[in-house]
Design a protein that fits this description.
The chain is α/β, with parallel strands linked by helices and 267 residues long. It has helices at 2-24, 55-68, 81-89, 102-110, 159-171, 184-193, 203-208, 239-250, 252-259; strands spanning 44-51, 72-79, 96-98, 114-124, 126-131, 151-154, 179-181, 198-202, 213-216, 226-233, 264-265. Helix content is 39%, strand content 23%. A six-stranded mixed beta sheet has the order 2-1-3-10-4-11. The longest helix is centred in the N-terminal third of the chain and has 23 residues, at 2-24. It is globular. InterPro entries: ModA, ModA/WtpA.
């Protein structure tokens, strides 16, 4: 009887030990549970729709985010903000939307494609991009009306175009551009290629292209400062990662990288 009692007790102890191991040493059936900042199991691809003027800064920040989230890949679609809103309206899948103005973000919210409240992470204003050495001697906004000058601007529905129009109206200056582009990088490209003598771009675009174009600042640009809001897209495939990326852009590291090429702080 004693031997039988000892055997039963030993079996019970083994079962109890095994149960303890299964509850504490085995991986959870829901990795990341209880931690809102934990990336999805195995990483994933985060898709960010961002205004073209964010290209240089967001490329760097995307790599930093990937380094901090092993297994995660960040992909960007850079276009004019109005084009990106149209894509979202048409059902394009994305996780994050960063606009170059409040107007297009407001439209995205009204169209029901944004989840939660957008937050402003940066500001930007216009500058004049000219050929190296500024051969046409452009010094002011009014100089863009000189006869024979080939000027390019953004289309009015694009944030950089809306800012241009606001400055024209505020100064009583009527520009006669040879073309209106769908995003600010196309304006910059025409100045770099020599197809235009001057183009209205953001300070940050002209700064990022230093060595390829010269930048002419003008006082009237302060009358059309654009705010850059960021938000999560509704039904985002990577909602948890989208929140982490948005917080990263709004945080210290995001602000520092954006400031390097001239973005102002969010307001």
């Amino acid at each position: 009887m004693k031997k039988l009692a000892i055997a039963v007790a030993g079996t019970a102890a083994i079962a109890l030990f095994a149960g303890a191991c299964s509850s504490s040493d085995q991986p959870s059936a829901n990795p990341g549970a209880g931690s809102a900042s934990a990336p999805a199991p195995g990483g994933g691809t985060l898709t960010v729709f961002a205004a073209a003027s964010l290209t240089e800064s967001f490329n760097v920040l995307g790599k930093q985010f990937e380094a901090a989230h092993p297994g995660v890949k960040v992909t960007f679609d850079y276009e004019g903000s109005s084009s990106l809103v149209q894509k979202l309206d048409n059902g394009a899948k994305a996780d994050v939307f960063a606009s170059a103005d409040q107007k297009n973000m407001d439209k995205a919210v009204q169209d029901g494609v944004i989840d939660g409240q957008p937050a402003v992470f940066a500001t930007n204003k216009l500058a004049i991009a000219v050929a190296k050495g500024n051969p046409k001697g452009i010094k002011t906004f009014a100089d863009l009306t000189k006869p024979g000058l080939n000027v390019v601007v953004c289309a009015e529905q694009v944030p950089c175009g809306a800012a241009t129009k606001k400055i024209e109206q505020g100064t009583g200056t009527a520009l006669k551009p040879v073309s209106e582009e769908t995003n600010v990088k196309q304006v910059l490209a025409k100045v770099q290629s020599g197809d235009a003598d001057a183009g209205l771009v953001y300070v940050t675009d002209a700064t990022s292209a230093a060595g390829k174009v010269d930048k002419v600042d003008f006082a009237e640009s302060s009358g059309a400062v654009n705010q850059y809001p960021i938000a999560l897209v509704k039904n985002a495939p990577q909602a948890a990662l989208a929140k982490q990326f948005s917080d990263f852009i709004l945080g210290t590291e995001g602000k520092a990288e954006l400031a390097k090429i001239g973005f102002g702080p969010g307001k």
